[in-house]
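Bit of a strange request maybe. I'm writing a small parser for structure token strings and I need a real example to test against, not something I typed by hand. Could someone generate the tokens for this chain?
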Amino acid sequence: MLPQEIIRRKRDGLALAADEIDSIVAGLSDGSLSEGQAAAFAMAVFFQGMSADECVALTRAMAASGDVLDWSSQDLNGPVLDKHSTGGVGDKVSLKLAAMVAAAGGFVPMISGRGLGHTGGTLDKLESIPGYNTAPGIEAFQRVVAEVGCAIIGQTQELAPADRRLYAIRDVTATVESIPLITASILSKKLAAGLGALVIDVKCGNGAFADHLDMARALADSIVRVAGGASLPSVALITDMNQVLGHSAGNAVEVAETVDYLTGAGRDPRLHELVLALGAAMLTLGGIDATVERARVRLQAVLDSGAAAERFARMVAALGGPADFLEHSNRYLPAAPVMEPASALDSGVVCSMDTREIGLLVIELGGGRRVASDGIDHRVGLTDMVQIGTRVYAGDILARVHASSDVAAAAAVERLRTLIHISPTESEPRPLIINTIASHQEADR
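Reply from user aminoacidic:
Good idea to test on real output. This should exercise your parser:
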């Protein structure tokens, strides 16, 4: 098939057959599809969209473009489960949830990404742990999942290579924000990982890719529909991202908050509720628990007993990190040379924050990439972030800035004060879980 004819059909708004989509994906994989043709295909899909059947075909083809993991030889005694987030600021849920679900009886082969735009990346956070290997190879990855119950790594060369090439092209051709292409990109990697079930956390708000509820619903529904068409049971939760999640944003600082969470030294209530909601969805979808209530009790129990913390420690050690990381994380995590508090100039109630801009502030401090080749300063970020609804008085700390220099710290403090808004009166609290979408049905909560 001539790729230009397939591209023309999609450009003109016609539905593509499965064999036409297979031909495009084969060209992405073997290099016979040129950069210009791949960009034109992405742009045609961006403007014309795809039906559910087309998106299922694209997802399946990209998943089959490389290795597809088979867990049957590992003799696992539980379901293979995963969670994916569309990205937010301070979103360190994966670090906690993988260990908790593993301790609760699931197996979690989590393939995560790096920071994208204003959002932090799970891999960047884990690489603040000395020695942690985010690219161990497929055989080692499967071994760690089987032995520990969880492993968090990056996308390998072997898994969904067509997606990797198409995503790189989308990133430089302004076609990232296409719901069919986002859906196929997420699910192709998850299908390649050999999952039994998947929970999606679709972020919605001023710190999310989907800043409006209509877009978040469209994306969540697309993922659930296409996953169902590809025989992957899934549930999507639309969750609020109008403020930093938890009390930190950065890399090492988010790992430190994770250690506190797992060991019980400190658990932000809002973050804890999200972890329990997503984890309960994973356990019920995987058949470990019959009800959400029982699943939440199980997850709380593995936290309280220390079993989840022990799984996290074992995962870190199995992937090259220190064997005593959990006990001595302060010794191992890099610390910024300058820490400066950002104090409130006025009294009142924190009513809102510019979450996306706070994420960009972390990048400006060095905690993210402006271009793909940039290095990351894992030390920098924000801690002790105030939450919306908190009453503050002039002089109270809104956040602590961790920076590489006094100049950078001072600039960040001044900028942060303009991004956290204080009102004389209290505002209505926003729900954390906005919608749950499963089996093509929506249920408001």
